[in-house]
């Protein structure tokens, strides 16, 4: 099973549109998927006690089990926030790290897709996130996919660019085929 994560808590984000499109591509290729939209996180589960496994909010533990621990692979869609990745994504990774740390991402193949209105497609943010994932023992696909100028690639909430569609499909195929 592959979990696709929309890595922002911004409601109705462009990141979610791309993540949902990618999830449909994975399923069309025969993969079993789940979609985690970080906009649906209840931030009250991230309290000072979040760093104590015994005090971890049951709802956060359930999200971790369903979307991370049960996943064989992950695809994380990473919008550019201030030259990096969103704090809510870091908060989520930190929050689940107190429980079953070595089972979260260790040994799992992880695809990264950068989403940005600028030219670089959040390359820097994907590098920052890749460093975090590597520290946690995950294996990031070497071909991180930067998607730039996203405001020009969507019409009425749907992808309208054939080259981007093809790049996402190749990324989905690489993720499915990857073994580590």
From TrEMBL:
Q: What would you give as a GO molecular function for this chain, any one?
A: oxidoreductase activity
Matching entries from InterPro entries are given as: Flavoprotein-like_sf, FMN_Rdtase-like_dom, NAD(P)H-dep_reductase
Which Pfam families is this protein grouped with?
Answer: FMN_red (PF03358)
Q: Which domain of life is it from?
A: Bacteria
* A GO CC term assigned to this protein in UniProt: cytosol
* NADPH-dependent FMN reductase-like domain span: 2-147
Protein name as annotated? NAD(P)H-dependent oxidoreductase
